[in-house]
Amino acid sequence: MIRSMTAYASYKAKNCQGNINWEFRSVNQRYLEIYIHLPDQLKRLEPDIRKCIRNRLIRGRIEGHLTIDIDRKNIAKLKINQELVQQIIDVANEIKIRNNEGVINPIEVLRWPGVVFESEQYNDVIDYEILNAMDNAISNLIKTREIEGAVLKSLIEKKLKNIATEINKIRFYMPEVLKIQNQRISQKLKNIELQLENSRLEQELLIMTQRSDITEELDRLDTHIKETFNILEMKGAVGRRLDFMMQELNRESNTLLSKSINSDISICAIELKVLIEQIREQIQNIE
């Protein structure tokens, strides 16, 4: 399934300590880059969080933010570093006396790194709840990516059909264009009164016709379009495959333009390049 690399998701859960709030944002990136913002007392979880994300996502710049709102009712279940609390209050009072203003907020004191801590067994429970909430948040992020990916897929398929239409136009023009080209070449040879045997004249006409023949390029374009449709139905990350196909399509459209001997074909070839570039821009955002 096609996934966009641009998405936002969040997940909230209530645990024994308070409320767990996860937020994830992702944008397009060539590789997978992970940036996690955790409270200092939970930095120990970062390796596990990174591992979980790598197991579920392949490309994109991922930013995760975790906040925990402590529930006052559950403060008694936690241990408090009384010595550190007293130091913070002493410093706060000193600043208050100097400036003759300010209020000491107990909740802000509790949020200070190292003030609130739990036993090792209690930590294990909290760690599990945080990681579980994070996994749910990543699931929400993936769902959002898939919804955006479905929109991108629809847009790309529409552009591919437009490309196929332009190719059919060129095929329609080609017989008449080649006929006119042969007449022009024959007329030029007559104008310069060049005496050639019929067999030699036919060979020269054949060579010139082959130089302007774009049947192979059109056939390859058709093949690339079909393959692009097939890639859009694949599972997993397909962004790089699609990008490669756009390079191939662009190469063939350049050849068409260079061989063009008719304004109608040139217009179609330019339109092909425009459509291919529009698809390529969309593909940059696909995982």
UniProtKB/TrEMBL annotation:
Protein name: YicC family protein
Pfam families registered for this protein in UniProt: YicC-like_C, YicC-like_N
PANTHER family with a match to the protein in the record: UPF0701 PROTEIN YICC (PTHR30636:SF3)
Organism (species): Candidatus Pantoea edessiphila
NCBIfam families (UniProt xref): YicC/YloC family endoribonuclease
Cofactor(s) of this protein: a divalent metal cation
Coiled-coil regions listed: 182-211
Ranges of residues in domain Endoribonuclease YicC-like N-terminal: 2-153
Endoribonuclease YicC-like C-terminal domain: residues covered: 174-287
Keywords for the protein's UniProt record, in alphabetical order: Coiled coil, Endonuclease, Hydrolase, Nuclease
Molecular function terms, GO-annotated: hydrolase activity; RNA endonuclease activity
